[in-house]
Amino acid sequence: MPEVLTGNFGHSETSNMKEAVSAKMSIESPAVLKLPVEGERGRRLAALKDKFTAEYSHSPQFYVRAPGRVNLIGEHIDYCGYAVFPIAVEQDILMAVAANTSGKLNLCNMDLCYPPFSCDISSFQVDRSKAAWHNYVLCGILGIREEGGVTGALTGLDVAVSGNIPPSSGLSSSSALVCAAALATAYAHKRTLAKDTLAELCARCERHVGTQGGGMDQAIAFLANVDTAKLIEFNPLRATSVPLPPGATFVVANSLAPINKAATSHFNCRVMECRLATKIMAKRAGLPWEKYQRLGELQVALGKTLPEMVEMVGEVLEKRLYSKQESVLSENTRDIQEFNLYDRALHVYSEANRVWEFHDVCKKDGPGALERLGSLMLASHRSTQHLYQCSHPKLDTLVELSQGIALGARLTGAGWGGCMVALVEEEKVEEYKKKLEQDFYSQEPAAKGRDIKTVLFSTQPGPAACVYI
Ligand code: GLA
Predict the structure, then answer these.
(1) Which residue from 418, 431, 451, 468 has the fewest beta carbons nearer than 10 Å?
(2) How many C-beta atoms lie closer than 10 Å to residue 76's C-beta?
């Protein structure tokens, strides 16, 4: 475990550990830790330092880390206002950073697939017409520029990036980049921001790339804790630690079908379908429908339970496609002709209910708890597959192969490719991995030449974003 220097990144306080840790804000701000020198992370940080020094001819002043995440249950409901259940993973984005006097942002990446980039740090705009990696860094900086409370122009920054979250795999590599960039910019400008403020700011600024995501990925990046999953609730943002029942492990399997949610209209189309369903249901209930954007707000206004909302979907929405003319359109969804409101709303309300059931089973941890969690995960997958239609044939294959050996399995993240997460009894983990290796990866052309440990791995809840000095 890295040594905690202070939880507050007011620079002057790093020498006074006790006072900093006892201050209220210090508990709520990302930790400032001693730079790890050992293990895999220590090696990556040392290589990152070398890259930084070679590129910019001076040393980094500090480093930041932001983790990826696996969502255990609660998919595509955060942007409807509903609670989700993620853990942070070990895989992360690391940044080495130093201020410069040129007013420029200079970026380079350990992975040469991601080309270097430079711009004026105080006047850039995010060009959403290009799916460039640096856009996510720009979003994070923009978040601090717009909402971080920095007075005057931003200081120029030299930044080197190292990432080991598999990209386009639904493990939130993009949001980790946004969160790391925002944290680095805040720290470089001596801005001490609470974790929840950073999380909300990052959720908003990531929308500069054009995707209307919810706040799950950024929330878990800043609010995660080792050894516990988090129930993340929104409006206002809250994170509650929920211990997982012992005896089982979460195994992540990458379908190797890449997903880039900013490059297609799928994601925004779902957000729009949920918004439209909200408006139609609000109108039918005699509410001022123009005011309502989220299925969650509608439930609060109606004072109904989630099962009652599921019933209401059946009463109000028709099981047919709604036409473009019936819709309120936004950029990125204008070329979509038809919207499936019934299935989408049904998924959201029933998935939101499953999250609470999952939470209650974890809390009670009685006999059969693991089996119950597994069946909730499978029900969640079926709902994303058939109602939300955001799965992928390869994800479905992985879920089918998991039957009978894992307790449950489901897609995780946005879907349309990316990863599956399975709940597996500890004594069966090796057997399970072997089965997927033989029955899936050995026949998957995209797996050729890849280290199996990077596509199929067990995972535990890891820590939140931090600064290293
Ligand atoms: C993406 C978004 C999240 C969430 C998931 C689906 O990761 O960034 O906000 O909507 O998809 O659950």
Answers:
(1) 451
(2) 26
Of 214, 273, 184, give the one whose Cα is nearest residue 75: 214
- pLDDT tens by residue, 218-274: 999 999 999 999 999 999 999 999 999 999 899 999 999 988 777 788 999 999 999
State yes or no: is 217 an active-site residue: yes
Closest CA to 415 of 399, 434, 437, 436: 399
**pTM exceeding 0.70:** yes
- Give the mutation target among 70, 71, 72, 76 for probing the ligand 1 site: most ligand atoms within 8 A of CB: 76
CATH number at residue 402: 1.20.1440.340
pLDDT above 90 coverage of the chain, percent: 86
The sign of the torsion formed by the CA atoms of 451, 452, 456, 458 equals negative
The string of DSSP letters for 336-387 reads --EE-HHHHHHHHHHHHHHHHHHHHHHHH--TTHHHHHHHHHHHHHHIIIII
Residue 134's domain spans which residues?
A: 3-242+463-468
Give residue ranges with CB within 6 A of ligand 1. 71, 75-76, 78-79, 172, 213-214, 216-217, 413-414
- Read out DSSP for 86-100? EEEEEEEEEEEEEEE
User: Which tens digits make up the pLDDT trace of 151-198?
Assistant: 999 999 999 999 999 999 999 999 999 999 999 999 999 999 999 999
Catalytic-labelled residue, pool 92, 158, 217, 343: 217
Mutate which of 77, 84, 179, 216 to test ligand 1's pocket (most atoms within 8 Å of Cβ)? 216
**CATH number, domain containing residue 167:** 3.30.230.10
Per the structure, the count of domains in the chain is: 2
Q: In the Cβ-directed half-sphere of 340, how many Cα atoms lie within 13 Å?
A: 12
Encode pLDDT of 316-359 as tens digits: 999 999 987 776 555 555 566 789 999 999 999 999 999 999 99
